[in-house]
Amino acid sequence: MVKKTPSKTKSKSASKDSATPPIGSSESSRVEDKISRTEFLCAAVAFAIGSGNLWLVPASIAQSGLTFLIQFTVCYVLAAIPLYYMEVALGQYTSASPWCIYQMLAPAMSGVPAAMAFNIVLRSTVLSVWVTEFLTMFAISLEGAWREPSYARCSHGDVCYDHRLARRCMFASPNDTSCAQFISAMVNTRVDAIKATPLIHSFARIFEEPEITLKPPESYVPNSMVIVALMLTWICAGCAATVGARFIGRLAYAVIAIAILTCIMLSILGKSFL
Fold it and tell me: What broad class describes the main subcellular location of this protein (predicted)?
């Protein structure tokens, strides 16, 4: 019996070695697919509960299509809504604020409310910035109803790169007036310079403070549309906060419908943005 055990161990090790696929085989690609699917599922859970892993949403929509919509809906129903009602139930049962609930559950969890408060402040600031950027871009895009939008072409700046003129103006003559801006941008900038599309370049001028200005940084005034959008965002947030938890509870049912419509729009238009 003692002599047979090495042969068994050898056979087991040989079977294990034979079971391991090579690096370039289809089994290794399946493992990579499982890892990517796990990342997409984590992105769906984080996107349903909060604002984490948002950068994986366009990639997951571009690769998986409407599959991400199904994952998001399931995670929202099974995770986001129960967590919300569990938090409300704990507050109603104990008749205490979040600062006292976790201390009642366990003294070691007394620091959780401070972390939650910091996370809420951080998320509120980030969401306010996102809403402000969306409202600003939406208001500026309305000018396309009566004239050509300002972000349709490269109006100024050598860093702007209009890909629609690239094919027609790449080998154009220097006297071609329609390609003057494209040719000057190619001549004045280096080959490895990072160039942006007209849309990105136009909105970067609105949201970003210029590095070189004649005025001191203290006297810099942002775009008026950004200021109006920011004030509107904080007014809506203040109105929602004063209404109370009843409005927020009803809003939880409406968020899933808005999220589904948003995911459908991203799945249709997401590939054009990537």
Answer: membrane
